[in-house]
Amino acid sequence: MVKQSVPEEWTPAALHQWQTLVRERSGLFFDQNRISRLREGVEDRMLVCAIGERQVYWQLVQESDQEFAALLTLLTVNESYFFRGMEELRLFCDALLPSYQQKQRLNRPVSVVSAGCASGEEAYSIAILLLESHGDKYPFQVRGGDVDGRALQVARDGLYGESAFRGCDGGLRQRYFARDGSGRERIVAQLQDKVAFFPLNLMSEIYPEPLRGVDFIFYRNVSIYFDAQSKRAIFCRLLEQLAPHGCLFLSPAEIFFHNQPQIRPNDVHLDAWQGRFFFRKLARRVAPVLTWPGEERREREEGAREPIAQPATAMRARAAEVAQDLLLAGEKLSNKMDRQRQMAKVVRLALADEVEQALQHVAKRLWSDPPHPQVATLKAAVLLCDWQDRSALREAIALCRAVIKRDALCFEGLVLLAMGLHQEGGDAIERIAHLRAAVFLNPASWLPHYYLAQAYESLQELGMAAREYQVVIYRLTQAGGIHGHGLPLLPLPFAEQALIQYCQNRLQQMNPA
């Protein structure tokens, strides 16, 4: 049947009306990039319902929860297939789960939830990888939740067409799926027994029982449907459901928005493993009750109404504390300014090839135990200036590893460690992991891309290397120039034109035609 065109035109006011309706009832937000999907969804449902006037369909959606659910299903159809985003799945299965089980010593199955699971491919993928990697070593429960009842029924049936298997290994497909008479393939009973599904409206103020106290939550490629306010609310509610030390996984594209200080709660830490990021909930600590000197925290007798006057001595003591705090703050600011002045001098010495004098200045004027992270990375950068000294190179690498151990998201430490490993001829895979993390932390910097190109080239991944060289050339010529490396307080003796020429030469050698 050929689709009929709807005679009514979509005015901006009409689009806004439907945007508001869907947003208020489901939290889904259709911006200008996705507004056509909303318009087409409404028109498709009007045809199915044999309704010619949009206002009549509007009234139906207002009165019928069933019809609104059908419209919502159409609007949230998303690309889904087995083993999508394999890096996060491997991170969870190979690294985080074993260490989590070892630390927590659970006497119950590990609980995993796929939030916004659609038709269940992600939930089943998690269960398959757990069985393949660990067998029965770690008992587990995987649950998938979604607002779309029809998608949940597909997940429970476990019956999938060919498009769902584009990322599925042939051996896994043979072990965990069986051909159905309809030409599709069904999840084997062994796997279906380990995965359950439940209704989940992420916009609800209270989440259902399967989410409470869960160990791991996958919430990937779902937040794109929500506006900023809804994203924040859902993110915080999901984090509240996690058990202490539990983890929340988002897609790489969603991490940056949710890691903003005004969004991420204080008891949640952004962690990293081989260039992949995830959120970990810390164990809550009971904060001590703070009281001012002389203050009565509670009335001495129940029913007392008169406030207790604070003695003058207590007021003076509090004033002295405030003065001391201000003095310490001033000292910290002064120390920071002095540290930056001394670091600038070290950079000047290193750029003048006075490496020994630069290291001596670090030792005399800047070093402490433990060292300030900026000082540690500065010393590492100075040590890397001496290309011939292998002991200096090893010390620089050790310094960077120590910095990253304290702060896994230290951009300077990640880049300098990769630079040191490059000079040492170290593992290209490790270099790539550190550099990918650095790119995430500072997308505008050209420096990680330069060393990524070198690492990919050493692995004969010439397509990836060429892409990184092109990024470097673009950043140097059109987006910030040589000073856009992201390490302003470190000695980096790069010449812009020479660097551009080098990248162009490498591209030409990889693609001589």
Which parts are unreliable, with pLDDT below 50 for 5 consecutive residues or more?
A: 1-6, 285-309, 329-334
In the CATH hierarchy, what is the superfamily of the largest domain?
Answer: Vaccinia Virus protein VP39
CATH topology grouping of the largest domain: Rossmann fold
CATH architecture of the largest domain: 3-Layer(aba) Sandwich
Mean pLDDT: 81
Structural class: alpha/beta
Compute the CA-based radius of gyration. Answer: 29 Å
User: What order do the helices and strands follow?
Assistant: HHHHHEHEHEHEEHEEHEHEEHHHHHHHHH
Number of helices: 20
The helix fraction, in percent, is 40-55%
- Strands, total number: 10
- Gap from first CA to last CA: 50 Å
How do the strands line up in the largest sheet?
6-2-1-7-8-10-9
What shape does the CA trace take? globular
Sheet-strand content, in percent, reads 5-15%
**CATH class category label of the largest domain:** Alpha Beta
**Main sheet: strands, sense, barrel:** 7 strands, mixed
In the residues, how many domains can be counted?
3
Task: Give me the secondary-structure topology.
Blueprint: H1 12-26, H2 35-48, H3 54-63, H4 65-75, H5 86-104, E1 110-115, H6 121-134, E2 140-146, H7 149-157, E3 159-160, H8 170-176, E4 177-179, E5 185-187, H9 189-192, E6 195-199, E7 214-218, H10 228-241, E8 242-249, H11 252-258, E9 268-273, E10 276-281, H12 312-351, H13 355-366, H14 373-384, H15 390-406, H16 411-424, H17 428-441, H18 447-458, H19 462-478, H20 496-510
Parallel strand pairs: 1-2, 1-7, 2-6, 7-8
Antiparallel strand pairs: 3-5, 4-5, 8-10, 9-10
